[in-house]
Amino acid sequence: MKTSEQLRKDFIEYWTSHPRNFKEVPNVSLIPNVDSTLLFVNSGMFPLAPYLGGQPHPLGKRLVDIQRCLRTNYDEMIEIGDNRHTLMFEMIGDWSLGDFTKQEQIPWILDFWVEVCGMDPKRLYVTVFAGDDDAKRDTEAIEVWQRAFAKYGVKAEFTEDINNIPSNLEEGANWPYRIFPYPKKKNWWERAHAPGELGGPTSEMFYDMGFIEKEDENYHVNDDSGRFIEIGNNVFMEYKLSSDMKWIPLEQKNIDFGGGFERVAMIVQDKKDIFETDIYESIIQKVEELSRKEYKSDGKDNEYTRFFIILADHSRAATFILADGVYPSNKDQGYILRRFIRRLVRYGLKLGIDRNFTKDLAIAVIEKMSYAYPNLKENENMIVDEIEKEEIKFRRTLDKGLKELDRIKNENIIDGKMAFYIYETYGFPFEMTLDELNIAENDAEILETEFKAEEKKHRDQSRAGAEQKFKGGLADASVETTKLHTAHHLLLAAMQKLVDPNIKQKGSNITAERLRMDFNFDRKLTPEEIQKVEELVNQKISESLKVERVEMPKEEAEKIGAQMEFGMKYPDVVSVYVVGDPQSILDSDWNSDEIFSKEFCGGPHVQNTSELAEGVKRFKIVEQENVGAGVKRIKARLI
């Protein structure tokens, strides 16, 4: 059996070998450092966002990576428990930044499925964009797929009828129809319907598992039955939304392939669900040991299977979030982490695990995944300590909260106000209350609105459901956000020069209204330090310094002292933004005293610091916070 570790190597080797010759992009933290629209990195294309619109990538136009991702919406959370859905997952991806076309991509990806992964081409089916008033049907993709399938002796006819599928694997072996049209809802990619957004038709790939995981009313390859598993999606990024909201041809046409690593491993290892693969094997075994129950009975789901899956998924998510420097809290990423840990405890109890156990699952995750993510092992002590502390804290009120929920269920009195009371009094995340009371998705939306309204009365800003603030779209490149990206560089340099040269960035978030920077420091800045930092930043703004993007080998960038985000992985060739005297930059004199800031970054930035003062604005630090042990946070604005 091919292990997940070997599959990981095979994927990278396939795309980096001749004739593809891709360059590997290092995976990044789950915590976005450039995109204010996201709470967590939720797709493999995230590290590529600045380059999809035309900005050159330092590694070239052909890129490949495996990126850790996390999705946290309620509708995605309630899917956890079947054979194929997870919140924490890895996405395999490859990209063409205006280079090759679907004429090359489609045959390559089919070759990968068949020749590298060993998939049976007779069990593969694909979908294409059906066409509408905005864009025509993707007939090119249809024709290329047909030629690609023919290489393996498989007839792949197109049919308008999406229900024209074989009844079983035996019939599928000689089934002629393999290409189906779907509308925008299924086969069109865009992240936010706004001017400047990129988009285009997609072509999804499905593998016939040969069994129906759950009954459905209308069977087709993209239904909810689980028979056909989506394993990957080619996004042909060919259009851009104009200012009058019309899709127009994109000058640089890109291709973005993304595939589910866990799902591919399931098929490669001939398993019926992803939690039977070696990725989750040690976690499932640990839960069996702790609960003294079986994950499955005679190879079939039992009454406990769903609880095992939730523990396996959430323990991976919590462990990875902690490793990326987030601590449990009542807001943003910390709130999501707290929600995962508390759901772990609750579903552990459903399995009869009545002692502290989350650290055991975290250790199992670390032991399995640290070969690919060394930061897990490096932060093991912190991870184990923090997850256990949160578990102990929650267990103190868990029994009382469950009794209160039983009373609410019996009296049928649940509303958003009551859900907030449960949250405030017993520490139950809103989603856990929904779980316990078996609230339907439509009713959940009403309760959430009421919950947030009640919460707003008690706090200055919304703390729950924080992910709803992050709506999507490619990295924000608006004028105001771009200015604050540059201000962020000036702030870091000023603090290193005036407060402590050992200060390093440990995370950031930038919107059009403010910048936020997390950094290592053991105390808050004094009023005097804040004043001096503000004065220095404003001085550099008034000096009209040049802001220049330079590509150079990572080793050279490190030698000249370019700042990098703590814990972040970078490729062999990096993009460095330099702020300083125009002549020094022109002479490439990176060690000149006239260079104020040098920092690894993908952008976007202004061209001159004077742009930050437009509208007679000045840089101002507006808030300081404690984030965790040895980590502080500053928020600043241009006002």
Explain this structure to me?
There is one protein chain. The protein is α+β, with helices and mostly antiparallel strands and 639 residues long. Helices cover 38% and strands 21% of the residues. The chain contains 20 helices and 19 strands. The strands form four sheets. Strands 1, 2, 3, 4, 5, 6, 7, 8, 9 and 10 form a ten-stranded mixed sheet that branches. A hairpin with an 8-residue loop joins strand 7 (188-189) and strand 8 (198-208). The relative contact order is 0.10. Residues 460-474 have low confidence and may be disordered.
Distance between the termini: 60 Å
Overall pLDDT, averaged? 90
**Rough shape?**
globular
Uncertain runs with pLDDT below 50, 5 residues or more?
460-474
In total, the number of strands is: 19
**% residues in beta strands:** 15-25%
Name the descriptors.
20 helices; 639 residues; globular; four-stranded antiparallel beta sheet; alpha+beta; ten-stranded mixed beta sheet; single chain
